[in-house]
């Protein structure tokens, strides 16, 4: 049964991506979104597509034609980075690359991955919520994690200093009620990262029950309180992003009011169709 459900989800996601790609070739409707400046970049809209939807960058920059300001490609392994095609040129959406942090690989190898990704992305996201990265979050490996984050931040800084453009570096962390990652956020501040993406969903499987559970006002309020806590700590020095449970324009505005600069969607895009960003933006 579990395997059958997984197959259905994969087929549904593949169909949703195909629909989004097809819709991106339709005449673009005028968006009500206002561009936002975050991490030194101008995003055409504060609404973006979370990693996992467009794993290989098929939609890419054309996401702007659907009202999205950005799309996050991946998560990407080292092998996938070598096979990645440069983001398409059509449209204005920014493209981020979501990088898996495999603790079995050396710091030098992971820095090489970042270097390859830097040349292809508008921003980079280090993914610390994937099962692959889970061992790095163990308390006994905290020193290793901080060492790795420092090395990756230093590598990004060196590339930005020598190149003709600046690619911001952010980290994706799980943020749940009673488990807001304050200590890691503080470490990111000290290390000089550009952004933090708070993921408010506990992770797979993405069931229908969990999706509709986000329509509860109290659950939305909890996510906003997590963003408020992080916002008070970061005080603008770290750009905050939020992903998980956003389904309506009211949800979007509440996350932005709580302190998120950018908001990503995933399940809503799968379930509500390719024009969800236009509905969220009103």
TrEMBL record:
| Pathway membership | Pyrimidine metabolism; UMP biosynthesis via de novo pathway
Cofactor field: FMN
What are the protein's UniProt keywords? Aminotransferase, Flavoprotein, FMN, Oxidoreductase, Pyrimidine biosynthesis, Transferase
GO BP term (any one): 'de novo' pyrimidine nucleobase biosynthetic process
**What Pfam families does this protein's entry cite?**
DHO_dh (PF01180)
Which GO terms of the molecular function aspect are on file? Answer: dihydroorotate dehydrogenase activity; transaminase activity
According to the entry, every stretch annotated as the Dihydroorotate dehydrogenase catalytic domain falls at 120-280
**Organism's domain of life?**
Bacteria
What this chain does, per the entry, is described as: Catalyzes the conversion of dihydroorotate to orotate with quinone as electron acceptor.
Protein name (record)? Phosphoserine aminotransferase
């Amino acid at each position: 049964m579990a395997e059958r459900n997984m197959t259905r989800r994969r087929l549904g996601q593949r169909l949703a991506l195909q629909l989004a790609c097809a819709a991106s070739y339709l005449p673009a409707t005028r968006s009500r979104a206002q561009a936002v400046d975050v991490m030194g970049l101008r995003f055409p809209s504060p609404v973006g597509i979370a990693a996992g939807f467009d794993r290989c960058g098929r939609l890419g920059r054309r996401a702007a034609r659907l009202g999205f300001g950005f799309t996050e490609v991946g998560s990407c392994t080292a092998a996938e980075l070598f096979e990645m095609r440069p983001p398409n040129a059509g449209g204005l959406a920014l493209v981020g690359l979501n990088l898996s942090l495999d603790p079995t690989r050396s710091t030098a190898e992971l820095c090489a991955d970042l270097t390859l990704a830097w040349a292809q992305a508008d921003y980079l996201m280090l993914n610390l919520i994937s099962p692959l990265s889970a061992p790095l979050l163990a308390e006994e490996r905290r020193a290793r994690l901080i060492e790795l984050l420092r090395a990756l931040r230093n590598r990004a800084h060196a590339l930005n200093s020598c190149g003709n453009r600046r690619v911001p570096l952010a980290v994706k962390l799980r943020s749940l009620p009673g488990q807001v990652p304050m200590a890691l956020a503080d470490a990111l501040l000290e290390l000089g990262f550009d952004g933090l993406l708070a993921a408010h969903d506990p992770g797979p499987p993405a069931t229908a029950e969990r999706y509709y559970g986000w329509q509860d006002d109290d659950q939305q309020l909890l996510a906003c309180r997590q963003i408020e806590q992080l916002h008070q700590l970061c005080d603008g020095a770290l750009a905050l992003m939020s992903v998980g449970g956003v389904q309506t324009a009211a949800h979007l505005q509440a996350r932005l009011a709580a302190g998120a600069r950018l908001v990503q969607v995933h399940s809503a895009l799968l379930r509500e169709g390719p024009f969800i960003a236009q509905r969220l933006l009103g």
